[in-house]
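Bit of a strange request maybe. I'm writing a small parser for C-alpha coordinate strings and I need a real example to test against, not something I typed by hand. Could someone generate the C-alpha coordinates for this chain?
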Amino acid sequence: MLKKVDSAQLKVGMYIHDLSCDWMTHPFVRNRFEISSQEQIQKIIQAGIHDVVIDASKGLDVEDAPSLAEAQAATEREVEAIAKEPSRIIRTSLGEELQRAAQIRSQAAGVVRNVMADARLGKAIEIGSVQPVVQNITESILRNPGALLGLLRIKSKDDYTFLHSVSVCALLVAFANARGMDQDIIREAGLGGLLHDTGKALVPDAILNKPGPLTDEEFAIIKKHPMDGFNILKQSPDVPALALDITLHHHERLDGTGYPDRLAGDAISEMAQMAAIVDVYDAITADRVYHKGLPAAAALRKIYEWSKHHFNPKLVQEFMRCVGIYPVGTLVMLESGRLGVVIEPHESNLLAPKVNVFFNTKNNVYIKPETVDLSRGLGFGGGDKIVGHESPAKWQVDPMRFLTLG
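Reply from user aminoacidic:
Good idea to test on real output. This should exercise your parser:
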Protein backbone atom coordinates (compact mmCIF):
# COMPACT_ATOMS: atom_id res chain seq x y z
CA MET A 1 0.00 0.00 0.00
CA LEU A 2 1.17 3.52 -0.83
CA LYS A 3 1.18 5.91 2.14
CA LYS A 4 2.02 9.59 2.69
CA VAL A 5 4.42 9.99 5.63
CA ASP A 6 6.32 12.83 7.27
CA SER A 7 10.06 12.73 6.57
CA ALA A 8 10.68 12.69 10.35
CA GLN A 9 9.00 9.25 10.42
CA LEU A 10 11.42 7.67 7.94
CA LYS A 11 13.47 4.64 8.99
CA VAL A 12 16.05 2.41 7.37
CA GLY A 13 14.17 -0.38 5.58
CA MET A 14 11.34 1.77 4.25
CA TYR A 15 10.80 1.90 0.49
CA ILE A 16 10.50 5.36 -1.09
CA HIS A 17 7.91 5.37 -3.86
CA ASP A 18 7.89 9.14 -4.49
CA LEU A 19 10.03 11.88 -2.97
CA SER A 20 7.08 14.27 -3.28
CA CYS A 21 9.12 17.27 -4.41
CA ASP A 22 9.92 18.97 -7.71
CA TRP A 23 12.18 16.46 -9.43
CA MET A 24 14.70 19.07 -10.66
CA THR A 25 16.04 19.68 -7.17
CA HIS A 26 16.06 16.44 -5.17
CA PRO A 27 19.49 14.94 -4.40
CA PHE A 28 18.92 11.36 -5.54
CA VAL A 29 19.61 9.66 -8.86
CA ARG A 30 16.35 7.70 -8.57
CA ASN A 31 12.91 8.67 -7.30
CA ARG A 32 12.18 5.16 -5.97
CA PHE A 33 14.55 3.22 -3.71
CA GLU A 34 14.85 1.39 -0.38
CA ILE A 35 16.36 3.45 2.44
CA SER A 36 19.56 1.66 3.40
CA SER A 37 21.22 4.21 5.70
CA GLN A 38 20.54 7.03 8.16
CA GLU A 39 22.58 9.26 5.86
CA GLN A 40 19.95 8.92 3.13
CA ILE A 41 17.26 10.07 5.56
CA GLN A 42 19.36 13.09 6.54
CA LYS A 43 19.89 13.88 2.86
CA ILE A 44 16.11 13.86 2.29
CA ILE A 45 15.47 16.19 5.25
CA GLN A 46 18.35 18.55 4.36
CA ALA A 47 16.96 18.86 0.82
CA GLY A 48 13.81 20.40 2.30
CA ILE A 49 11.64 17.37 1.51
CA HIS A 50 9.03 17.35 4.29
CA ASP A 51 6.93 14.35 3.31
CA VAL A 52 7.28 11.37 0.99
CA VAL A 53 5.24 8.46 -0.35
CA ILE A 54 6.33 5.03 0.86
CA ASP A 55 5.34 1.61 -0.47
CA ALA A 56 4.50 -0.48 2.60
CA SER A 57 4.39 -3.66 0.48
CA LYS A 58 8.11 -3.30 -0.30
CA GLY A 59 9.44 -2.10 3.06
CA LEU A 60 8.64 -1.04 6.61
CA ASP A 61 5.23 0.52 7.30
CA VAL A 62 3.94 3.48 9.31
CA GLU A 63 0.64 2.13 10.60
CA ASP A 64 -1.17 5.39 11.38
CA ALA A 65 -0.08 7.18 8.18
CA PRO A 66 -2.80 8.05 5.65
CA SER A 67 -2.88 6.16 2.39
CA LEU A 68 -1.84 8.07 -0.73
CA ALA A 69 -5.46 7.93 -1.93
CA GLU A 70 -6.68 9.44 1.37
CA ALA A 71 -4.06 12.21 1.18
CA GLN A 72 -4.99 12.98 -2.43
CA ALA A 73 -8.70 13.05 -1.57
CA ALA A 74 -8.01 15.55 1.23
CA THR A 75 -6.03 17.73 -1.20
CA GLU A 76 -8.86 17.56 -3.74
CA ARG A 77 -11.40 18.74 -1.14
CA GLU A 78 -9.18 21.74 -0.34
CA VAL A 79 -8.68 22.49 -4.06
CA GLU A 80 -12.44 22.44 -4.63
CA ALA A 81 -12.85 25.06 -1.89
CA ILE A 82 -10.28 27.28 -3.63
CA ALA A 83 -12.18 26.87 -6.91
CA LYS A 84 -15.26 28.58 -5.51
CA GLU A 85 -13.50 31.96 -5.35
CA PRO A 86 -14.00 34.26 -8.37
CA SER A 87 -11.35 34.38 -11.10
CA ARG A 88 -10.59 36.81 -13.91
CA ILE A 89 -12.56 38.31 -16.81
CA ILE A 90 -11.64 37.33 -20.38
CA ARG A 91 -11.93 40.01 -23.07
CA THR A 92 -11.69 38.04 -26.32
CA SER A 93 -12.41 34.43 -27.30
CA LEU A 94 -9.71 31.79 -27.40
CA GLY A 95 -10.15 31.36 -31.15
CA GLU A 96 -9.65 35.08 -31.80
CA GLU A 97 -6.42 35.21 -29.80
CA LEU A 98 -4.72 31.94 -30.81
CA GLN A 99 -3.25 33.15 -34.10
CA ARG A 100 -1.78 36.30 -32.54
CA ALA A 101 -0.52 34.25 -29.60
CA ALA A 102 1.30 31.85 -31.95
CA GLN A 103 3.18 34.74 -33.55
CA ILE A 104 4.07 36.21 -30.15
CA ARG A 105 5.31 32.80 -28.94
CA SER A 106 7.64 32.48 -31.92
CA GLN A 107 8.89 36.07 -31.69
CA ALA A 108 9.54 35.84 -27.94
CA ALA A 109 11.44 32.54 -28.21
CA GLY A 110 13.71 34.14 -30.83
CA VAL A 111 14.43 37.11 -28.57
CA VAL A 112 15.33 34.85 -25.63
CA ARG A 113 17.60 32.83 -27.93
CA ASN A 114 19.40 36.06 -28.91
CA VAL A 115 19.70 37.17 -25.28
CA MET A 116 21.30 33.84 -24.36
CA ALA A 117 23.71 34.07 -27.30
CA ASP A 118 24.76 37.59 -26.31
CA ALA A 119 25.24 36.55 -22.69
CA ARG A 120 27.38 33.61 -23.76
CA LEU A 121 29.59 35.98 -25.76
CA GLY A 122 29.87 38.43 -22.88
CA LYS A 123 27.84 41.13 -24.64
CA ALA A 124 25.57 43.53 -22.75
CA ILE A 125 21.88 42.65 -23.00
CA GLU A 126 19.95 45.07 -25.22
CA ILE A 127 16.83 45.67 -23.14
CA GLY A 128 15.35 47.80 -25.92
CA SER A 129 14.89 44.67 -28.04
CA VAL A 130 13.27 42.75 -25.17
CA GLN A 131 10.71 45.26 -23.90
CA PRO A 132 8.45 45.24 -27.01
CA VAL A 133 8.15 41.46 -26.69
CA VAL A 134 7.13 41.77 -23.04
CA GLN A 135 4.55 44.36 -24.09
CA ASN A 136 3.14 42.01 -26.75
CA ILE A 137 2.94 39.15 -24.23
CA THR A 138 1.22 41.42 -21.70
CA GLU A 139 -1.38 42.58 -24.23
CA SER A 140 -2.11 38.99 -25.30
CA ILE A 141 -2.55 37.91 -21.67
CA LEU A 142 -4.95 40.81 -21.08
CA ARG A 143 -7.03 39.83 -24.13
CA ASN A 144 -7.21 36.11 -23.30
CA PRO A 145 -4.55 34.47 -21.08
CA GLY A 146 -5.55 30.94 -22.09
CA ALA A 147 -4.40 31.32 -25.70
CA LEU A 148 -0.72 32.07 -25.12
CA LEU A 149 -0.48 30.00 -21.92
CA GLY A 150 -2.08 27.04 -23.71
CA LEU A 151 0.31 27.26 -26.67
CA LEU A 152 3.33 27.62 -24.39
CA ARG A 153 2.63 24.24 -22.85
CA ILE A 154 3.91 22.71 -26.11
CA LYS A 155 7.72 22.53 -25.93
CA SER A 156 10.29 20.33 -27.62
CA LYS A 157 13.64 19.41 -26.05
CA ASP A 158 15.36 21.69 -28.56
CA ASP A 159 13.48 24.86 -27.63
CA TYR A 160 12.67 24.08 -23.97
CA THR A 161 15.15 26.56 -22.46
CA PHE A 162 13.85 29.46 -24.55
CA LEU A 163 10.14 28.66 -24.31
CA HIS A 164 10.41 28.07 -20.57
CA SER A 165 11.52 31.69 -20.21
CA VAL A 166 8.62 32.87 -22.39
CA SER A 167 6.21 30.77 -20.30
CA VAL A 168 7.49 32.18 -17.02
CA CYS A 169 7.08 35.69 -18.46
CA ALA A 170 3.50 35.04 -19.59
CA LEU A 171 2.51 33.24 -16.39
CA LEU A 172 4.00 35.96 -14.19
CA VAL A 173 2.19 38.65 -16.20
CA ALA A 174 -1.10 36.74 -15.84
CA PHE A 175 -0.49 36.18 -12.12
CA ALA A 176 0.39 39.82 -11.40
CA ASN A 177 -2.57 41.05 -13.46
CA ALA A 178 -4.96 38.69 -11.66
CA ARG A 179 -3.73 40.15 -8.37
CA GLY A 180 -4.56 43.67 -9.58
CA MET A 181 -1.00 44.95 -9.64
CA ASP A 182 0.05 48.22 -11.28
CA GLN A 183 0.67 47.98 -15.04
CA ASP A 184 4.28 49.20 -14.72
CA ILE A 185 4.95 46.51 -12.10
CA ILE A 186 3.34 43.90 -14.36
CA ARG A 187 5.65 44.85 -17.25
CA GLU A 188 8.73 44.75 -14.99
CA ALA A 189 7.64 41.34 -13.70
CA GLY A 190 7.24 40.13 -17.28
CA LEU A 191 10.73 41.39 -18.12
CA GLY A 192 12.12 39.53 -15.11
CA GLY A 193 10.29 36.39 -16.17
CA LEU A 194 11.64 36.54 -19.71
CA LEU A 195 15.21 37.08 -18.47
CA HIS A 196 15.15 34.99 -15.28
CA ASP A 197 17.27 32.14 -16.69
CA THR A 198 19.84 34.30 -18.49
CA GLY A 199 22.54 32.78 -16.28
CA LYS A 200 21.95 29.38 -17.89
CA ALA A 201 23.80 30.77 -20.91
CA LEU A 202 26.99 30.06 -18.92
CA VAL A 203 26.02 26.46 -18.08
CA PRO A 204 27.66 23.92 -20.44
CA ASP A 205 25.15 22.41 -22.88
CA ALA A 206 26.21 18.92 -21.79
CA ILE A 207 24.84 19.68 -18.32
CA LEU A 208 21.88 21.77 -19.40
CA ASN A 209 20.64 19.11 -21.83
CA LYS A 210 21.87 16.01 -20.00
CA PRO A 211 19.49 13.08 -20.69
CA GLY A 212 19.42 11.97 -17.06
CA PRO A 213 19.64 13.16 -13.45
CA LEU A 214 22.51 15.48 -12.52
CA THR A 215 25.45 14.52 -10.29
CA ASP A 216 26.11 16.63 -7.20
CA GLU A 217 28.91 18.42 -9.05
CA GLU A 218 26.70 19.18 -12.06
CA PHE A 219 23.87 20.38 -9.83
CA ALA A 220 26.33 22.74 -8.09
CA ILE A 221 27.07 24.28 -11.51
CA ILE A 222 23.34 24.64 -12.29
CA LYS A 223 22.80 26.35 -8.93
CA LYS A 224 25.13 29.16 -10.00
CA HIS A 225 22.78 30.37 -12.75
CA PRO A 226 20.69 32.82 -10.66
CA MET A 227 23.80 34.71 -9.52
CA ASP A 228 25.37 34.50 -12.99
CA GLY A 229 22.19 35.89 -14.53
CA PHE A 230 22.02 38.67 -11.96
CA ASN A 231 25.63 39.66 -12.70
CA ILE A 232 25.01 39.64 -16.46
CA LEU A 233 21.82 41.70 -16.28
CA LYS A 234 23.08 44.31 -13.84
CA GLN A 235 25.63 45.34 -16.51
CA SER A 236 22.68 46.72 -18.48
CA PRO A 237 21.53 49.98 -16.83
CA ASP A 238 17.94 49.65 -18.10
CA VAL A 239 17.13 46.42 -16.23
CA PRO A 240 14.80 47.36 -13.32
CA ALA A 241 15.52 46.19 -9.77
CA LEU A 242 12.40 44.02 -9.78
CA ALA A 243 13.66 42.02 -12.77
CA LEU A 244 17.06 41.59 -11.11
CA ASP A 245 15.36 40.34 -7.94
CA ILE A 246 13.33 37.75 -9.90
CA THR A 247 16.49 36.56 -11.67
CA LEU A 248 18.48 36.19 -8.45
CA HIS A 249 15.82 34.74 -6.16
CA HIS A 250 13.39 32.61 -8.21
CA HIS A 251 14.88 29.43 -6.65
CA GLU A 252 14.52 30.54 -3.03
CA ARG A 253 12.04 28.60 -0.89
CA LEU A 254 9.93 29.80 2.03
CA ASP A 255 11.51 27.30 4.45
CA GLY A 256 15.06 28.46 3.62
CA THR A 257 16.05 25.39 1.59
CA GLY A 258 16.41 27.21 -1.75
CA TYR A 259 19.37 28.94 -3.39
CA PRO A 260 21.55 30.98 -3.88
CA ASP A 261 21.08 32.83 -0.56
CA ARG A 262 18.90 30.34 1.39
CA LEU A 263 16.48 33.16 2.16
CA ALA A 264 13.38 32.28 4.17
CA GLY A 265 9.91 33.72 4.78
CA ASP A 266 9.48 37.45 4.25
CA ALA A 267 13.17 37.84 3.40
CA ILE A 268 12.06 36.70 -0.07
CA SER A 269 10.21 39.48 -1.90
CA GLU A 270 6.59 38.86 -2.85
CA MET A 271 7.43 38.98 -6.57
CA ALA A 272 10.29 36.48 -6.17
CA GLN A 273 7.87 34.20 -4.29
CA MET A 274 5.42 34.52 -7.19
CA ALA A 275 8.21 33.79 -9.70
CA ALA A 276 9.23 30.65 -7.76
CA ILE A 277 5.70 29.26 -8.03
CA VAL A 278 5.46 30.05 -11.74
CA ASP A 279 8.94 28.67 -12.52
CA VAL A 280 8.27 25.30 -10.85
CA TYR A 281 4.79 25.00 -12.36
CA ASP A 282 6.08 25.44 -15.90
CA ALA A 283 9.11 23.21 -15.35
CA ILE A 284 7.22 20.21 -13.95
CA THR A 285 4.57 20.33 -16.69
CA ALA A 286 7.18 20.11 -19.47
CA ASP A 287 8.41 16.86 -21.02
CA ARG A 288 12.16 16.39 -20.65
CA VAL A 289 14.42 13.68 -22.05
CA TYR A 290 14.36 11.70 -18.80
CA HIS A 291 11.11 12.85 -17.18
CA LYS A 292 7.53 13.01 -18.44
CA GLY A 293 5.83 16.30 -17.63
CA LEU A 294 2.82 16.29 -15.32
CA PRO A 295 -0.60 17.35 -16.62
CA ALA A 296 -1.20 20.98 -15.60
CA ALA A 297 -4.03 20.07 -13.21
CA ALA A 298 -1.84 17.49 -11.45
CA ALA A 299 1.06 19.97 -11.24
CA LEU A 300 -1.14 22.53 -9.52
CA ARG A 301 -2.16 19.99 -6.92
CA LYS A 302 1.50 19.07 -6.31
CA ILE A 303 2.45 22.72 -5.85
CA TYR A 304 -0.50 23.16 -3.50
CA GLU A 305 0.85 20.29 -1.36
CA TRP A 306 4.37 21.75 -1.43
CA SER A 307 3.03 25.16 -0.38
CA LYS A 308 2.86 23.88 3.18
CA HIS A 309 6.64 24.38 3.27
CA HIS A 310 8.22 25.68 0.05
CA PHE A 311 5.78 28.30 -1.25
CA ASN A 312 3.50 30.96 0.15
CA PRO A 313 0.13 29.13 0.52
CA LYS A 314 -1.90 32.30 -0.09
CA LEU A 315 0.00 33.05 -3.30
CA VAL A 316 -0.32 29.44 -4.49
CA GLN A 317 -4.09 29.60 -4.04
CA GLU A 318 -4.23 32.90 -5.96
CA PHE A 319 -2.12 31.38 -8.73
CA MET A 320 -4.47 28.40 -8.96
CA ARG A 321 -7.43 30.75 -9.35
CA CYS A 322 -5.45 32.70 -11.96
CA VAL A 323 -4.68 29.77 -14.30
CA GLY A 324 -7.76 27.74 -13.33
CA ILE A 325 -8.08 24.53 -11.34
CA TYR A 326 -8.22 22.91 -14.79
CA PRO A 327 -6.03 25.23 -16.93
CA VAL A 328 -6.77 25.89 -20.60
CA GLY A 329 -5.52 22.92 -22.61
CA THR A 330 -6.19 20.38 -19.83
CA LEU A 331 -7.70 17.05 -20.91
CA VAL A 332 -10.63 16.23 -18.61
CA MET A 333 -12.94 13.24 -18.18
CA LEU A 334 -16.62 14.11 -17.92
CA GLU A 335 -19.24 12.18 -16.00
CA SER A 336 -20.78 11.16 -19.35
CA GLY A 337 -17.58 9.29 -20.26
CA ARG A 338 -16.55 11.90 -22.83
CA LEU A 339 -13.12 13.50 -23.00
CA GLY A 340 -12.84 17.24 -23.50
CA VAL A 341 -10.19 19.95 -23.54
CA VAL A 342 -10.68 23.01 -21.32
CA ILE A 343 -10.98 26.19 -23.38
CA GLU A 344 -12.15 28.78 -20.86
CA PRO A 345 -12.49 28.95 -17.07
CA HIS A 346 -15.73 30.09 -15.48
CA GLU A 347 -15.53 33.42 -13.66
CA SER A 348 -16.99 32.19 -10.38
CA ASN A 349 -16.75 28.39 -10.48
CA LEU A 350 -13.42 27.00 -11.65
CA LEU A 351 -14.79 23.45 -11.48
CA ALA A 352 -17.22 24.26 -14.31
CA PRO A 353 -15.21 25.62 -17.28
CA LYS A 354 -16.12 25.52 -20.96
CA VAL A 355 -14.75 22.43 -22.68
CA ASN A 356 -14.59 21.17 -26.23
CA VAL A 357 -15.61 17.49 -26.09
CA PHE A 358 -14.25 15.23 -28.85
CA PHE A 359 -13.89 11.62 -27.68
CA ASN A 360 -16.18 8.95 -26.22
CA THR A 361 -14.24 6.67 -23.87
CA LYS A 362 -17.08 4.15 -23.57
CA ASN A 363 -16.85 3.32 -27.28
CA ASN A 364 -13.21 4.44 -27.66
CA VAL A 365 -14.05 6.61 -30.69
CA TYR A 366 -13.78 10.23 -31.70
CA ILE A 367 -17.09 12.10 -31.78
CA LYS A 368 -18.17 15.29 -33.50
CA PRO A 369 -16.52 18.05 -31.43
CA GLU A 370 -18.82 20.40 -29.55
CA THR A 371 -18.44 23.09 -26.89
CA VAL A 372 -20.00 22.30 -23.52
CA ASP A 373 -20.43 24.98 -20.86
CA LEU A 374 -20.30 22.98 -17.64
CA SER A 375 -21.80 25.85 -15.64
CA ARG A 376 -25.11 25.41 -17.51
CA GLY A 377 -27.81 22.82 -17.00
CA LEU A 378 -28.95 20.03 -19.32
CA GLY A 379 -30.57 21.47 -22.46
CA PHE A 380 -28.71 24.77 -22.09
CA GLY A 381 -25.33 23.70 -23.50
CA GLY A 382 -24.21 21.96 -20.29
CA GLY A 383 -25.54 19.09 -18.20
CA ASP A 384 -22.23 17.34 -17.49
CA LYS A 385 -19.38 17.68 -15.01
CA ILE A 386 -15.69 16.96 -14.64
CA VAL A 387 -14.77 13.82 -12.72
CA GLY A 388 -11.01 14.27 -13.11
CA HIS A 389 -8.11 15.22 -15.35
CA GLU A 390 -6.55 12.69 -17.71
CA SER A 391 -3.22 12.00 -19.38
CA PRO A 392 -3.37 12.48 -23.18
CA ALA A 393 -0.85 9.62 -23.53
CA LYS A 394 -3.23 7.22 -21.78
CA TRP A 395 -5.90 7.78 -24.45
CA GLN A 396 -3.45 8.53 -27.27
CA VAL A 397 -5.16 11.83 -28.10
CA ASP A 398 -3.88 15.36 -28.68
CA PRO A 399 -6.25 17.74 -26.86
CA MET A 400 -4.49 20.80 -28.29
CA ARG A 401 -5.98 19.94 -31.72
CA PHE A 402 -9.40 20.72 -30.28
CA LEU A 403 -8.73 24.06 -28.59
CA THR A 404 -10.93 25.59 -31.28
CA LEU A 405 -13.70 24.01 -33.34
CA GLY A 406 -14.00 24.17 -37.08
